[in-house]
Write a structure and sequence with these properties.
With 190 residues, the chain is of the alpha/beta class. It folds into 3 domains: 107 residues, 3-Layer(aba) Sandwich (Rossmann fold), CATH 3.40.50; 32 residues, no CATH class; 43 residues. It is built from 6 helices and 8 strands, in the order E-H-E-E-H-E-E-E-H-E-H-E-H-H. It has a 4-stranded parallel sheet. A two-stranded antiparallel sheet has the order 3-6. Strands 4-5 form a two-stranded antiparallel ribbon. Helix 4 links the parallel strand 7 and strand 8. Helix 4 packs across helix 6. GO terms for molecular function: DNA binding; DNA topoisomerase type I (single strand cut, ATP-independent) activity.
Length: 190
């Protein structure tokens, strides 16, 4: 692709779902490769996934509770091929468009894609509320950056879920019965 201008290079669009990828790919046509992340590509590390050098800080929760609740993320084993495929497609692209859902989770998925793929090309965030050709074209014309505030909100929710679930679930197992779990949404608020 040396010698090609950015406008001549393929553009990579990443959505969450393979069904959306096919539909949107049909609307965008040639010049665009549309692929799916199939949801989140990274999550908080399980204790067994934390490297030995980081165990003291992140080993219990995948979160450093002593330093601003810093999370330690890993690409799950089931997502390594997806990330590899996305990196390969990105290497052939002149621009990256993140078209994940316009909600907390979608914004976080977009952020994690940037962190994992480490693009060296311009990154743009596409948002739309319907999958129609006019909506997709309008979203291409009105891109924005990833919303860090929404990413922070999702990260806070995920960290709280981990801390709450990891601490309360063992109590439930001892007091009520094995196999029960407690999460922020699963448990009754008092």
């Amino acid at each position: 692709m040396k010698g090609e201008s950015m406008t001549e290079q393929n553009k990579l669009v990443i959505v969450e779902s393979p069904t959306k990828a096919r539909k949107i790919g049909g609307y965008l046509g040639s010049g665009y490769t549309v692929m799916a992340s199939v949801g989140h590509i990274r999550d908080l590390a399980q204790p067994s996934q934390v490297p030995a050098a980081k165990k003291a800080d992140f080993g219990k929760f995948g979160v450093d509770v002593n330093n601003g609740f810093e999370p330690y993320y890993v690409v799950g084993a089931d997502k390594k091929k997806t990330v590899s495929d996305l990196k390969a497609a990105l290497a052939k692209s002149g621009e990256l468009f993140l078209a994940t859902d316009e909600d907390r989770e979608g914004e976080a998925i977009a952020w994690h894609l940037v962190q994992a793929l480490k693009p060296k090309v311009p990154v743009k965030r596409m948002v739309f509320h319907e999958i129609t050709k006019p909506a997709i074209q309008a979203s291409l014309a009105n891109t924005r950056d990833v919303d860090d505030h929404m990413v922070d909100a999702q990260e806070t929710r995920r960290v709280l879920d981990r801390l709450y679930g990891y601490e309360l679930s063992p109590v439930l197992w001892r007091k009520v019965g094995p196999g029960l779990s407690a999460g922020r949404v699963q448990s009754v608020a008092t």
